[in-house]
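> call design_seq(struct)
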């Protein structure tokens, strides 16, 4: 189904309060589980694995990757598989959204390690102590969280600007939970096969 959104005219003319009320009446689904223990734990685990993957890729290529779409597909596949054998209930679309939000935050945490901190060590020719890097990452994370609230309210609530990766994750979530479940499972299997093949290849050619 199409994702509900305001028209350009409504975005220009409505106040922030009107836009928030429209969202509450037309989009908000308070009767559906969202930030649950299992969605948080799944996001934490997937975020850790994908952050390590992103750090490896960034260290090799200098390019950071987004992990939102990957976490959406993997979380969907895991809980759809568990639900099919009767071990757990299937994820709701909002639980999966919470999982990908947590995993995405963890995935982006590695960015300073391959940008500012890496540049500093290259320029000064000194290795930064581990505790200094950990402290720096914690400070950056706290600042990011504090800045996220006013930025989200200004650019998303008021300006209704689509955040690219979040928008893409929303489209994928809407698709796999609205009839394209088979395609979601196929993508998950494809991700798993690709990861296994590339991991085996790197193991063979690695110098240890």
């Amino acid at each position: 189904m199409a994702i509900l959104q305001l028209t350009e005219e409504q975005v220009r003319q409505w106040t922030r309060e009107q836009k928030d009320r429209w969202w509450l009446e037309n989009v908000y689904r308070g009767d559906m589980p969202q930030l649950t223990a299992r969605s948080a734990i799944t996001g934490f685990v997937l975020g850790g694995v994908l952050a390590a993957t992103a750090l490896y890729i960034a260290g090799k290529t200098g390019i950071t990757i987004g992990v939102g779409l990957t976490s959406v597909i993997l979380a969907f596949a895991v809980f759809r598989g568990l639900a099919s054998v009767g071990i757990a209930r299937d994820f709701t679309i909002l639980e999966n959204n919470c999982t990908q939000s947590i995993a995405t935050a963890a995935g982006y945490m590695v960015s300073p390690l391959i940008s500012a901190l890496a540049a500093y060590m290259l320029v000064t020719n000194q290795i930064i102590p581990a505790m200094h890097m950990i402290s720096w990452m914690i400070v950056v994370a706290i600042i990011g969280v504090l800045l996220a609230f006013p930025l989200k309210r200004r650019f998303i609530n008021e300006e209704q600007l689509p955040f690219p990766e979040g928008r893409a994750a929303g489209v994928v979530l809407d698709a796999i939970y609205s009839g394209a479940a088979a395609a979601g499972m196929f993508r998950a299997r494809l991700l798993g096969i690709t990861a296994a093949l590339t991991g085996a290849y790197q193991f063979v050619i690695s110098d240890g």
